[in-house]
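Homework help thread (please don't just give me the answer)

Our assignment gives two proteins as sequence + structure token strings and asks us to describe the second one. The first is just a warm-up. Here they are:
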Amino acid sequence: MSAVQESVVAGGGLNPELLRRDFPVLEREVHGSPLVYLDNAASTQKPQAVIDAELDCYRRYYANVHRGVHTLSQESTAAFEGARGRVRRFLNAPSEQEIVFVRGTTEAINLVAHSFVEPRVKPGDEIVVTHMEHHSNIVPWQLLCERTGAVLRVVPISDAGEFEVADVEAALTARTRFLSLVHVSNVLGTVNPVREIVAAAKSRGVPVLVDGAQATPHMPVDVQELDVDFYAFSGHKIYGPTGIGVLYGRYDLLAEMVPYQGGGDMIRTVSFAGTEYADPPARFEAGTPNIAGAIGLGAAVDYLLAIGLERIAAYEAELVAYAAEAMAEVPGIRLIGTPRRRAGAVSFVMPEAHPHDIATILDQQGIAIRAGHHCTEPLMERYGVPATARASFGLYNTRDEVDALVAGLHKVNRLFGLDT
């Protein structure tokens, strides 16, 4: 634990000003102004502890993992598998054998689509998703439907950017074979009632995958409490490295699944007569893994757990509510979605100014936001816009940064002749 984290823990509430000292990039300026980084839904910045963990691997003990008998391989393997244990604790999974390292949420969803769902569907069977899904939780299911003749059904959302459990129940039929939904929308910030939805689906015998990419940075996630079958997240969203992510899966389901990829490290024995696969999770980790990335992910998990996910959730809930209220006061602005429970992100459009214009003007003031369709084109169509601007928040963001964003939005209006 860093000295800054110790101060936070000792002080009770989260102090972002102290935590910012752990993130070297936040010390820089952009176009002569202090960096205000509000693009956390796309990717978070990295604390020194994560940077040091990866560097330490490469500097002191890097070697390929598993089956090596020399010291460096043994040390790398211990650190790699130690990261798996950290992730197990992070999700409160029953077993480390239920933690599969993947490249990220996208690969995790594709793995489940290929290895679990596809062998279980026939023409006319149904896969259910919601209207607020990221493309990574739409396209794999469309591909599966093209291969199998299955049908994709979509749960609608309200203008507020929400759906009720009853809406999901209405979409589940006798032909439903799988439900895949997002925990927190990357555009709307909507926090979905996952526990209740999972219970409703499982009462009908429908397995569930939850895309947790936008939830894990902002709140505690307990896969046992959620009773979910599969849960996926990406390391770079939780202040860890890119190119590493996690699929949690119930062990009994993983043990039934065929491998997603073939190669080294996912086998027990190989002959030209046939191959016997390793037990999970190795069965789904073909080839040399992202060793340093997993170690960095373990460091990111340690960092968040030391601060406390409950503390992060409480602080960010207040900050996002403050941001949404302050942004709504900017003349002409339209917030996209007004969910009752929001985490992480606020998306919006402004009169006359294209989202790319908004982002460019803000960048000149050192403020980083995201503009575009955010890999949610069906959601953009639902709201009748081609794109939005999105401010997204992390544990190191402050009210002063929200105020800087709002001042920047007033400047956008002035440049377009809409604010005096």
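The one we have to describe:
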Amino acid sequence: MNTTATLSFLPWLPRSTRQVLGAVVTLAQCAALLLPILSHAVRIKEIASVQGVRSNALTGYGLVVGLDGTGDQTTQMPYTSQSLSNYLAQMGITLPPGTTAPQLKNVAAVLVTAQLPAFAQPGQFVDVNVSSIGNSKSLKGGMLISTPLKGVDGQIYALAQGNLVIAGAGAAAGGSKVQVNHLSAGRIPDGAQVERSVPSPMQEGTSISLGLNANDFQTAKRVAAAVNLKMGEGKARALDGRTVQVQAPTDADERVSFLAEIEDISMEASIPSAKVVINARTGSIVLNQAVTLNPCAIAHGNLTISISSTPVISQPNAFSTGGQTVVAEKTNIQIRQEPGGLIQLPASTQLADVVRALNALGATPQDMLAILQAIKAAGALNAELEVI
């Protein structure tokens, strides 16, 4: 980049001044080149959704039949045989009085769950998940009999039935067992047919509300500004950090077209708030790009206690009378403490610097969980710490 040629039209300035101006021009040109890289455009449909347009959870209790001897042990799960007896009674088959409950090995009691999508209409199909609630060893090869799926209001919204798809396999013989993946839960693609639709409030009123996926006042402001720029001034206003109200046409077809245009509007995404997400069960740690680190010093060491037991056998001499073999144990206990040096972490303003500073500690992910919490408590971690 030739800054001398850029400032050739200022020959009357001193050489030192032109060099300083040339450096400023160079930095400005570099910033202009980096600006398209740093900016990130997103569509409104990726960061917000129309309030009231959502799915609904459905659940039901049913029976899986046709298992190859891997069903519930009905002596321990009496509700399985009771459910089958009730089902047979609905089919007109009743057991003679005094007959004991049938002991079945090919039937398993299950819970069936599904998500009823928004705008789902009667006759459409949805996927269902089937999970065993008894002591069934495997649901592989089973078929779910007709099961009503209810919403939280107790109304039936779908009927589920079909053959299960189990993404696993297993075999057992002679006390040995081999299993791949999970055998007590499966899925039925398009296994439930919708019987009732859920009313949607999308066509009600003269306005709609866009709900942001995350609570952010800056994003809400930018969404309202982008809608006003595209649809006209005064069409949208931000009510809070998560809701943007938009004036919409009252005609159904016009409102759908209006929402389609709004969802496709592009806008510059705001920088997310600094957050560190920690999964204490798996030891996973995720940091976003806004995390920064203040100068701090950390000392970390491990204390290891090792206990080992060695059997010691004492036998009597050969041809001795009355002697007995004595088995004793010799216990060895060792305590080892690894040195924990004091490590100074410099201030880090970029994610790469934060990662480089934390890697310098040489700690395992499990140890890093405690270190990050201690850094946050000391006020040196500029981020929200979320443990899931």
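TA reply:
I won't write it for you, but here's a hint about the kind of observation we're looking for: The mean pLDDT is 81.
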